[in-house]
Amino acid sequence: MQFARLCCGALFLLFSAHLQAEERSPAVAGQGQQPNIVVVVADDLGWADVSWHGGPYQTPHLDRLCREGVDLDQHYVSPMCSPTRAALLSGRYASRFGCTGAQNERVYPFGTTTLASALQEVGYQTAIIGKWHLGSDPDWGPHRFGFDYGYGSLAGGCGPYNHKYKTGPFTDTWHRNSKRIAEEGHITDLLAADAVKWIEGRGEEPFFLYVPFTAVHIPLKEPQAWLDRYADIEDPAHRQYAASISHMDDAVAQVVAALDRTGKRKNTLSVFFSDNGGTQARNDDPKYPPDDYTPGRAHGNNLPLRGNKAQLYEGGIRVTAFANWPGKLQPGKVTAPLHAADWMPTLTALAGWKPQSDLRWDGRNVWPWLTGGEPQPRPLYWAGTRFATAAVRSGDWKLILTRQNDQVELFNLGSDPYEKTNLASEQPQQAQQLRKLLEELAARDNDSKVQPEGSKK
Predict the structure, then answer these.
(1) pLDDT tens, 386-437?
(2) The pLDDT of residue 453
(3) Strands, E, within 18-69: which ranges?
């Protein structure tokens, strides 16, 4: 308990320091124009699937944006898609809302302050173009949580051409402004074109554009032109995966080109990351309505990190990420641990919005870190998945509790970033301290969970 009290006290001091940092940010201090904000999220993109991490695929546009921006070397997310999205838009760990996996039921209670609704309050136009997956019924769509405009999939990843989600009540998921629609075209092309059109329609008001692509989530079915780029890959499913990555890279380039063409990019902060680690799920997963999908598995590659999507090892939760703002962010690398929950405190501070009540954020305003400031240590916490109970990181130490026999795994990421050596038996005191910290952080889980009567289907 004494350790937990010390942690809480430290967190309070850190939070106070971050509030002071927020007050010094340019937008809050009235020293600069409110920035436009573009957040792009890839789906199931592996750590080693991009060129700057040694990947074999063509990602020239993402490479350039990362090279000219700030490479976020230890950007953490949840090991599954919906929790990462919930953390991004709330500033809280998704487990506070009872969300620990891919979820079609509504995640947020109505009235929840989100990144989008906060930015609306200070004059931003807001849009989500892509995958929502925080409540797959139209009544639970993004329009209920701060988005002026919404387009794409209300549910999760869906077929590239038929735009169908998994067979069941949410199969028909393609929508515009929470009204289901039917369209023709490849999903990546449709999302890119809609994002470009939305940017071109903006006036002088600041905007927040959230583009969560469905690529490279299965099922994949790429146009021949993109497949031809990887004719040397013999495995047809692997070729689909490679083509999907390059196709998404090109879609990001179209969004950036629209910002350049409209003269808006110089005042736009762009953030990119994957929602979780890569996977090797079946491309012809039978849960999706058939559309002649290539048999075989996705080829998500997280090496040299250990683990994959849905796991709490680094390969499931540490993802490719960068931030880019020409003239504002100098090229470089941040090696301090960040989390998807940090973006709401960070972006709202830049926009000049301040919460009127305690939103119980788990995230922190990391803008000072991105601009050369000294990162402040804080713990990170992950609730469980079907593979693991929970995990916590404090400094270089990381503890994972596994379901089988309540096994404890302890790693020192400073000396063992690839989690090869379990030190739990050698460092029992360190393991016990982290376990107490984990229990303290987990105590707030489900404090904002939607009650059963608030959901349906």
Answers:
(1) 767 899 999 999 999 987 657 899 999 999 999 999 999 999 999 999 999 9
(2) 61
(3) 36-42
The CB density around residue 308, as the number of other CB atoms within 10 Å, is: 22
Please name every residue paired with 339 in a beta bridge, in sequence order, or none if there are none: 76
H/E element holding 212?
Answer: strand 207-212
- Cα distances from 260 to residues 67, 149, 177, in angstroms, run 18, 22, 27
- Regarding pTM above 0.90, the answer is yes
Q: Which residues pair with 408 in a beta bridge?
A: 401
Nearest to 78 by CA among 404, 388, 405, 449: 388
Are 37 and 347 spatial neighbours (Cβ–Cβ below 8 Å)? Answer: yes
Has 75 been annotated as catalytic? no
**What gap in Å lies between CA 352 and CA 437, rounded to an integer?**
33
Q: Which of the residues 81, 143, 247, 299 is marked catalytic?
A: 81
Residue 133 among the catalytic residues: yes
According to the model, what pLDDT value does residue 387 have? Answer: 65
> Which of 133, 163, 217, 247 does the annotation list as catalytic?
133
Nearest 5°: CA angle at 291, between 308 and 192? 70
